[in-house]
Amino acid sequence: MKALPTSIVLAFAVAALPAAAQQSRPVLEPRTADAIVDHCLDYARQAGYQVAVAVFDHGGNLASFSNSHSPASGALAQWKGHSAAVYRVSTRQAADWNLPQAPMIATAEGGLPLFVGDVAVGGVGVSGAPSAFDAQCGTHAAEAAGLSVTPRT
Questions:
Q1: pTM for the complete prediction?
Q2: Where are the beta strands (DSSP E) in 30-105?
């Protein structure tokens, strides 16, 4: 019978220990990911293009996607967006690394990392228009949603 009171005392002692402090970090909200897709599709439509747009969170998970172009464009947008989210640099910059065998690395322009301040929160990939426009569309959409494609302090 003495074990029960001892275990109760130990339980209270452990519960009374201070928990380690946890820092919160900015994350990509689902509504922000959807807004990026919508802004990019509208921007492209106004310029006369149909594109595919893929937005990923900081862990490389697909957060939002739309394809108004073709299956190939959809696959390329996802490849670019995933690469930008995971490597946290634009796919244009990744091409300069000359590491074509790196896992899941995209080297075609149109993938951009997403930042809140200096914290990477994901990536966006755009495909279906000329590559320079894909990158411009992603940048415009990220900024319209309140994010940046380069770290800001």
A1: 0.85
A2: 52-57, 62-67
